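agent> step 3/5: call structure_predict on target 'Major facilitator superfamily MFS_1' (Pyrolobus fumarii).
agent> reason: downstream docking stage needs a structural representation; sequence fetched in step 2, passing through unchanged.
tool.input:
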Amino acid sequence: MQRLALYWLAVLLHIGGWAIYYSVSRSLEAIIGFSGILLLAALETLPSALSIPSSSVAASRGYRGLLIFGFVEALGLLLFAVIPWPYSSLGVLVASIGWAIAGPHTVTAVLESSSSSSKLGVVLSSGALGWSLGGFLGPLLYDATGLTGSMLVAFLMITGCYVIFLANLPEGAASPGGSRVGALETLAYSLALSPLIVAMETSFSLIMGRIASELPSLHYALVLAGTGLTSALGKVIAGVVIDRIGGTVIYRASFAAYSIWMVASSQLGGYALAAAFLTPIFPFYEIGYYTHVSRLLGERRATAAWAASYTLASLHLFTLSVLELSFVEALIISSILAFASLVVTTLVERWITRRVAPQQRY
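tool.output (status=ok):
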């Protein structure tokens, strides 16, 4: 229980640091432009495929040593602040490489230490609170201290996260295990999941940018804080619900919910769009994913599949960054991708189930 309490704090620091970066970077649209925002989103996701070889190392040798790359992740965000644009985007790439190697294993540690979905939901709810805290502080820090000051705070928070995890890992962290399938199945699932990630990254980035441009800075900060609060409550509720009815139904329903939400959001603006952004779909998707997919792939492969799915998303985001798509067009395309991902992930799950013997899956 003490370890889970420390993980709660570490997750809050980790997501809080990234929330500062996201809230500040998305408010730079007037400086770097619409294409610059999409470029950052692409670089944030491009290295995510590194999580698959990282998960192979974790399965064969443990993941303790891999968490060292978390300090590279923190350093990358600091580089984003001190290097002039557009070269500062390379700092985001460095941070993303560190996250792809180390980040998924923070969730692995939580999964291997949690005995139920409700406990998992409580620990991961701190990430939503971290998002709320970082989202609120980010614009205020930027106004008060500029880009360097705000990214320094993000650097310190993420560094603190990895210090806590490295000092409090479960006993099996340095040992083989935690995987029920191989790299091929992990890659296949990540590819199937990637259309939803494209949809979420595109819609979240554009909606945040639109809200930042249409609302006063303080109101933008309050909206981001509000999303964290609704998400934190949603994760706790999702964990309790999933313990009762299972993760599969909740996980798949979240795909359809996102598809509908993206279409609806495309028709909104200003405070109405901000209200839609507060809808807590992601908590049910996240807890449902870890409960359902960990059962299918194993904890260490499930976290890797989530992370790796962002790589293909980055390639699509690079394409979107050079296309002259309107806000509405981008969200409609996102809606279609979210529904397509529901279909494809279901088919891939059946394929994996046929490939892996029942005694290996359960």
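agent> step 4/5: record observation. The domain at 2-361 is CATH 1.20.1250.20 (Growth Hormone; Chain: A;).
agent> proceeding.
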